[in-house]
Every structure is written in C-alpha cells, then in structure tokens.
Amino acid sequence: MPENQEPAALSERDPMFEREKEKYERPIVSREYILQYLEEAGQPLTLDDFFAELEIGEEDQEALRRRLRAMERDGQLVRNRRGAYGIIEAMELIRGSVSAHPDGFGFLIPEAGGKDLFLSPREMRKVFHGDIILGRAVGEDRRGRIEGTVVRILERALKQIVGRYFADGGNHYVVPEDRRIPHEFGVVEGGELAPVHGQIVTLDITQYPDGRNMPQGSVVEILGEHMAPGMEVEIAVRNYGLPYQWSQAVLDEAARFSEVVPEDMKEGRRDLRDLPLVTIDGADAKDFDDAVFAEEIVGGFRLIVAIADVASYVQSGSALDKEAVARGNSVYFPRRVIPMLPEILSNGLCSLNPHVDRLCMLCEMEMNAAGEVQRFRFARGVMRSQRRFTYDEVAAILEGDEALRTQDAALVPHLEALHRLYQSFAGARERRGTIEFDSQETRIIYNDQLRIEKIVAVTRNVAHRIIEECMLAANVCAAQYFRIHDLPMLYRVHPEPSADKLEDLRRFLGELGVPLRLPERPRSADLAKIIEETRDRSDSSLIQTVILRSLSQAFYTVDTGMHFGLAFPAYTHFTSPIRRYPDLVVHRGIQALLDAGTQEPRWLAKKELQELGQHCSMTERRADEASREAVNWLKCEFMMDKIGETFTGIITGVTGFGLFVALREVYVEGLIHISTLGEDYFHFDAQHYRIIGDRSKETFQLGDAIEIRVMNVNLDDRKIDFERAVPEGQATGGKARRPRRSRKESS
To answer: Exposed, middle or buried, 307 (CB in 10 Å: 0-12/13-18/19+)?
Structure first.
C-alpha cells in the first residue's frame, strides 16, 4: 500500500466498485483501480504484493489473478522477468501494430501515434504483418531511424497462411504467397490432405515463430495448381483475410427471403411505381443500387434518387448484419465478386431490377437552374424500375441514336432532362472547385482459356458523369440531413493536404515556372485551377501526379469534416448500401429520423460509430489491396510471353532505385532499375522527382515518355522488370527470371 494511505474497504477505494457489484456476485477490484493503484505505487507489483496491499482474501485471489492476466493480454499491463505487473507507459513500452515490408524489415506503428519504430529483419523473424505487439526503442540505426525490439506479442494477426507446398525428400514445407511473411512453414504430417509438390495450399498455423524455431502448420485446404485460372483471386482472398464463406446462421437468415417483396412491407410507403425511374450502370453490372428520375420544373429541376432499401431486410444485430460488418464492403476482382450480402439480397431482393416491385429509400431534391439544391426530403418508397440502361446506351441516346431513341421514346425526355440537369451540376462543380484529374481506367478482356487476351482503356462518357453527379447530390443531402437534426453519423472525410506536403508542392511548382501561387491554406479550387491552367503544357501529367500525391487519404469518421477533393463542407455515403456498410448505417440513421415523430430514435453512440468508421476504412483499404494484388498477378502472367519486346511508356514513379513506367499500349507497369539506365552514374533527385546522369546530365523525370524493353517477369513477386530500349549494341541484356524458390529448393 502506498505510504501514508490508511486501509479502507474496497467499496470506498475503488471508484468502479458499484459497477463491479452489478456484474459479479463477489465483486473484485476493477481494472481502473488496478491501474490507479500501480501509478500511485510507482513500481511494478507482484501477485503477492496485490494480495497483501489490497487485502484480497484467499477466496478472491484466483479472480484477481485472472483479471491481471486479462489486462496483460489486452496490453494494459506487462509482466517483467520477476513476475511483477507494471504499467506499459511507465516501463517505456509502446503498443502498436507491425507493418512488414517484402524485403524483410518492418515497422512498429504506435497506437497512440508518434514516430514509427524500425524493426530489423532479425526482429521481424518473431512476428507477422498485422500482429499487435509491445515494443521498446533501443536506439538509432545508421540512417537515423529509431530502432525497436519486440518485447511481447499481444495478438497474432494470422491464423492461416496460403502458400506453395514443397516436398524435398523428407522435408515438407510451405513458402507463403504473401511476401511480407519472411518465413517458411514446416508442415505437420498426419492430416487427411495430401498435397502434391508445387500446389497452392492453405495452412492452419499450429506453431508461431520465436526468432529461433521454424513456424509450423497443418494443411487444411488444397487450392490447386500454381498457374490455374482464378488462382490469383483465391490467393489474394486468403492473403488479406477476406471473409468469403457464409456461416450457417447467415445462410439460414438469407433462406427466409425470396425475390418477391412481401405485400405487407409495401404498406405506408410512397408509391413511385408509375414514375419512370431507370437504372444506369455498366454492361457487366449484376446488382443495381440506384435509380434516377428528373424533370424540369419552374425555375430549375426536380430530381429523385431512389436507393435500394437494404435496411428493411438486414436488421441491426442479425447474423446477416454481423457478417456485413465483418466484410465492410463488397470486393471486386476480375471475373469474381466477394459480396457484402448473400446473392438473394445483393442480386435479387435488394437489387432494383427492371419491371419488379422493390423497396427503396428516396432522396427528392429541387434544384435551381444553377444546379444548387434548394430543398430536399427523404422518404421510404416502393418503386418499379422502367428500364435497365447501360452507360453506353444512354450516351448513344443523348448523341442521337435513332434506333434507341425510337425503342425508348417514352423515356427519352427524362434522359434529356437528366442531361440538362447534369450540365447545371457541371457548372456548380466548376464554381465549387472540384479537383478533376486526367486518369485512365482499364478493363481486362479474357480469352476462352480464362487468360488475359488484352487490356483496354475504358472511356468515361456523359452517362457516367450524369449518374456520378446525381449520387453526389444525394450524398450531400444525407450529410446535411444529419447535421440539421444533430444525429451522430459516419461521414466521408477527405482532409486538406498537410502543411509539409503543401510546402513541397509550392516549391516544386515554383521551380517548374507555374505562375499560379498557392495561399497558405489553399482550397480545392486553387489546385483545380492549377490543373486546368497547365492542362496544355508538356509536363501537365507530371504536375497532376505531384498534386495528387500531395492529397490526403479519405476515410470514415463520426466527426463532421470537409471533403477537400469534392469541395463539400460535409459528405457521406448514402447511395450503395448493397456493397458498402457505411451506406447501410446512413440508411438506418435516416429511418430513425423519419420515425422520430412516432417513437424516440434509438441510435449508436459516437464511440461506437467512430470504431465502426475505423473498421470500414480498414476493410476498404483491405479490399483495394487484395484487388490490386490479383490484377498485378494477371498482368505479370500476361507479360510473361512478351520478354524481349519493346514498348513506349510514361514514367509514373521515380525512386532511389529506379523508374516505374506504365506502358501505353498494354496498360501494365514495371520497373527500370537505376543500374540499367545507361553508361553513367545516375543520382536520384527526390525534390524534383527525377534521376540525373552524372556525366551526361541525362534526365528522367516523372511524366516523361520512354522506350523500354521487357527484361524479366516474376509472377511470385508480382513484379515486371524493364530496361531502357537503346540503339543496338548499347542495351543492357537480361533474361527471364524464374519464379522464386525456397532456400531449401535452391540448395
């Protein structure tokens, strides 16, 4: 007991005693009081110290022992070598997550913020990417990085790995496909499955690495041959831990639905079935979240955006809802989708398919002639889509395609009204100062063997832009709705660029001679003006790339904040509840407010929403990374028979080790290593995004065109190596690199 503290009953000392009394028949000392007591004690305490100083009777000692161990597992306490418990901060320990690099090193990312700790390859032998650990700073390395050591692993991120199975005599092991895992896994023999050398398998981890011993696992799934069609998706799904199987509870709940809306669910809703609402999507779309209708009224336009009413089917807390939270969003791969909701809902009952009744949430807006929303309201509705249009069909109709205009004569006036409304929106967008980059989307075309035949550019037409503007308008109205009614909600926030990035951008633009100046806190309109004013310059792609890289990443949060890129003071996601969980939360919030006149709205606390926003931001990034990995695999596979061929490309990245180049003809990116640029010493100029030759002064800069030759393709590492294509006799040669093998196989 701390000096000068008189003994007192636990009920008097522990501020959380009443809470513990409600939870337990025999209340024990709370976590809060344990932390407070340790802080007052000023030193770590053993179990016996706690028993004696807190006067814990023998009958309660086991309960306290379990509580201390739980606090240790949760990272609230740490136990030293003599078994004494101490406060993490007082012992100079840092709790955080491990971020691994494919080259073997990694970083400890502190949960409380602050500088990352560099973890050497030796330290990384103890942990996996994503593990929650306690670490300690131990000094600086030669590059000035704060170096850390792993003190304790609190939570393992991985329970399974996916990798390539090798059988080398009596040795059986798996090399992970995730290059951030620098371990080979010994295979525990005796399982029912018998993989063949070279196959891709899933391994349940039975023994984790400790820096000395090899991790181990048992084979629980044989995915197939390494180069089998679709293997890239199977690997990405497991590498990134994407939930892809439905539990029996989810299947049971989904089985209760049919594709027909029950009549009783249509009651009390606004009937829109006679309104010519239509969906406009891509030709390969399977689910239809949104339908639109517009007409001209006195002084402007009336727009209705109708969104599938998923919230009426997926109840909060249900098995379907819990699974949707875990997934966070649908994940789109080439040729495959991992949906957030089962198909009976995502492609059936919640999809606004043509000529069938569907429940919807509608946002009705009135705009003036300048495209500014004057009034809006939300309501529950029942609708019937009159037509499923593709973007190309709508664009053709607006361009005067007589056959389509005759076929859809009744709908053409409404499409033309949508087009005129879009033109008003476009004017408002320009006045607002929305940032627009000249980006290029691509689509993969497959042959009969499910291999890539070609990669083609996707051109956005006017129909894409019409739908985009309608959705933006509805999302902004939803954000305003919650601000008006002061209901906590998840917002989509895109912060303004950091001061450091803005300073770098100012310096860069000044050296390029861009006459426009950025104010101390620029608006999106300031950056949009620079993009527009420099669009005809030869270095416009360089300028746009540097501006893009100065921007922050968007995320979900409960705090209202601006969307810098779109130039909205508040923004949320309302229009895609089939494939994004935050949109489903927004729908529930709107329905709570619609019901507020008849019942007290029950809603989530800010803390719950904030945690949900962090989770959904994570699942969004996870989906993007998994999709990118699968596409990179396919692009590598596509380029394997093109080694030695030459292409024209654009430099999209400049680093200390070389140039990243995107090929114009095939839309694939690869690396030219700095050592293959030519007969000169080349140096990286980070400030100007370029590499310069020492003797020749030859310069390679972001946005420059360059001729390349394909040197190597490494499918396992998802990497393509280029060399600079120079006249005969000067080229540096190269040959195809074989897929990576394990060290045992190489020896």
So the answer is: buried
pLDDT score for 735: 38
Token couple for 552 = 């922050």
Lowest mean pLDDT among 493-507, 531-545, 716-730: 716-730
Beta-strand relationship, 387-390 and 278-281: parallel
Helical H segments across 47-120, by residue range: 47-53, 58-73
Q: Which two tokens stand for residue 709?
A: 């030759």
What's the rounded mean pLDDT across residues 74-98? Answer: 77
Task: Determine the residue type at 594.
Answer: L
Element (H, E) at 12: helix 10-13
SS3 labels along 107-138: EEEECCCCCCEEECHHHHCCCCCCCEEEEEEE
Do residues 378 and 594 make contact, with C-beta atoms less than 8 angstroms apart?
yes
Give, for 21, the enclosing helix (H) or strand (E): helix 17-23
Residues 6+ apart with CB under 8 A from 55: 7, 10
CB atoms near residue 168 (< 10 Å): 12
Q: What is the pTM of this model?
A: 0.83
- The DSSP string of 540-587 is HHHHHHHHHHHSPPPEEESS---BTTTTBSS----S-TTTBHHHHHHH
Parallel, antiparallel or unpaired: strands 719-724 and 705-714: antiparallel
Give pLDDT, residue 744: 36
Helix (H), strand (E) at residue 655: strand 646-655
Count the residues in the chain: 747
What pLDDT is attached to residue 745?
37
For residue 272, give the DSSP letter: -
In Å, what is the CA distance from 329 to each residue of 471, 480, 490, 587? 18, 24, 15, 15
The answer to whether the CB of 526 falls within 8 A of the CB of 415 is: no
